[in-house]
Every structure is written in C-alpha cells, then in structure tokens.
Amino acid sequence: MAVSFRDAIRADVAAVVALLADDPLGQARESGDLAPYLSAFDEIAANPMHQLIVGESDGRIVATCQLTILAGLSRQGAKRALVEAVRVVADLRGQRIGEALMAECEMRARAAGANVIQLTTDKTRLRAHAFYDRLGFLPSHIGYKKTL
Fold it and tell me: Which of these, 7, 17, 124, 139, is most buried using a 10 Å CB contact count?
C-alpha cells in the first residue's frame, strides 16, 4: 500500500481526532467536539517547531503523529525530537505504515538538526512496546505524567 506523508491541514483535524479516539485509551479521553482540537491545531501550525504529520493513501488519512523539535542545553546543547500521538488506522495495522511513519519522523528530525528522537508510550500498550523495540528505540527511561 502506498502511503504519502505530509503536514496536516486544518481540514484533516476530524480524521486525526478519529484516529486518536480509535482505541480503548483514546475513547476515554477524546471527544466529538472539534473546537478544542481546531484551536490546538492552529497553535501547532503557527509554531515551526511542531509538525502534525498525516499519512494518506487514496485520499484517506491512515496515520498520524506529532513531531516536536526541542532545543536543550543537555548533550552539549543538542536538539531532540519528541514524537507524540502515533496512530495508524485500525484496519491497516500490521502493514508497516507505522514503520514508514516513524522513518518519516526520523528523516524530519535529522533535517531539523536533532541528534536524538524520543517518545513515551502507555505502559498498557504492549504491542506498541514491541513495535518501538523492533525499530531500535531503547526503553532507557521511566516517564512520569501528572494531570494539571
């Protein structure tokens, strides 16, 4: 299956939200009201350090993630890339679309000057853990979150 990756446009927001909501964790935290998502999209689109990426096949959004480039002082002032909200449409999982999406992220991160790419994934997403392990990501840190 041919998938092309591009920056999302505002018209893609509903399809991206549908991908975010299409799993047990997402069902509990996403809503059908697009207003807050459109507002968030506008913020993402206005900041060149954020990229909302979509994968498209035959006019259908089949994958998404957000890539953020962060400047930092550690690692001798290195930039790092943070990948969030990685999703592939349920009926196409297992067809290497996620692998292609992550390769796109790595290519964009390198182009932005990042020398490390990182992500977090929920502890319950065991298939995702195996996926990231297979791509060469190392579970080197423990992530913490706190709802504000």
Answer: 17
